[in-house]
Design brief:
Layout lengths: L1 H19 L3 H15 L4 E2 H8 L3 H13 L3 E4 L4 E4 L2 H12 L1 H17 L2 E8 L3 E8 L14 E3 L3 H10 L4 H8 L10 H14 L2 E4 L6 E11 L2 E11 H4 L3 H20 L8
Antiparallel strand pairs: 1-3, 2-3, 4-5, 4-9, 5-6, 7-8, 8-9
Helix pairs in contact: 1-2, 2-4, 3-4, 6-11, 7-9
């Protein structure tokens, strides 16, 4: 149920992005690729057009262009489209130059096994969204169905509090974006602001069941350069199961994030005050 709600929200966000884009051709192609990337099965042109709010003839034009570029495949027998291997070329080049993934995967694996929780490494894309770039599953009590490449609103959950605390964004913009977020148990903006300030003081953030009811999320910021928050380490587990070990998890996650930051950009001296 939770995953279906999150998927529906993401699909609506894709459609909205297409509608508001200043470069509609590029936005439509990107939205089609993201939709196909999330789908477990190939999709027909009418299904894709309906999900993205496109005219079917326009959607077909975009699909044919993507097929020609070998980013999308077309099965003539079923009249359905799926991602093609051409997208791997782009992903391979990105992974080759992305040092964060090489550094963070063994860290995530160690923490997930030590604490029995799901660990994510996420990349921050301004105030627009975060992208999951590394995953490690641990423990049997909770498994988060999140894959590399999954996108979430930037200010949601514990990671969002880190972005607000350390991103130096105007308060008015934060409030406007906060109003569009969807939570299972939404905090008020005033309560969220207080949690952002607490995040700034202690150096990490905690979401205790607001984003997903009954689930605790802990996030610690990572810097690729000294003045720009670029990534975060995120731990996710069932609240009750985490309660006893939460302080140790918080300390370990913060220490790991500082270590990765140091490796990415040299010694980081963050001021939490």
């Amino acid at each position: 149920m939770i995953e279906r709600r999150k998927k529906a929200r993401a699909d609506r966000a894709l459609a909205k992005a297409v509608e508001s884009s200043k470069a509609p051709a590029i936005s439509r192609a990107a939205a089609v690729l993201r939709l196909l990337g999330k789908s477990d099965t190939p999709l027909g042109v009418h299904s894709i057009a309906r999900e993205l709010g496109l005219v079917p003839s326009t959607c077909l034009y975009v699909l044919r262009a993507l097929v020609a570029e070998e980013f999308v495949s077309f099965d003539a027998s079923t009249k359905r489209y799926a991602l093609e291997a051409g997208v791997l070329t782009l992903a391979r080049h990105w992974l080759r130059r992305n040092r964060f993934n090489d550094l963070v995967q063994p860290v995530l694996d160690r923490l997930s096994q030590n604490f029995g929780v799901t660990l994510l490494g996420v990349q921050i894309v301004g105030l627009d969204h975060i992208v999951v770039v590394a995953v490690s599953q641990g423990g049997q009590n909770f498994q988060l169905s999140t894959q590399i490449g999954s996108r979430f609103p930037a200010l949601i959950s514990a990671t969002g509090r880190c972005i607000a605390a350390f991103g130096d964004h105007p308060a008015a913009e934060l409030q406007a974006r906060f109003q569009s977020l969807r939570w299972d148990e939404a905090p008020s903006f005033e309560a969220w602001q207080a949690q952002v300030q607490e995040t700034k003081r202690q150096g990490f953030a905690v979401d205790a069941g607001h984003y997903i009811s009954g689930v605790t999320v802990v996030a610690a910021p990572v810097w690729k350069t000294r003045d720009k928050l670029s990534h975060a380490l995120v731990a996710i587990g069932v609240g009750g199961a985490l309660r006893a070990g939460l302080p140790a998890l918080q300390a370990s996650l913060l220490s790991a994030a500082e270590t990765v930051s140091n490796q990415l950009c040299g010694e980081v001296s963050a001021d939490w005050s």
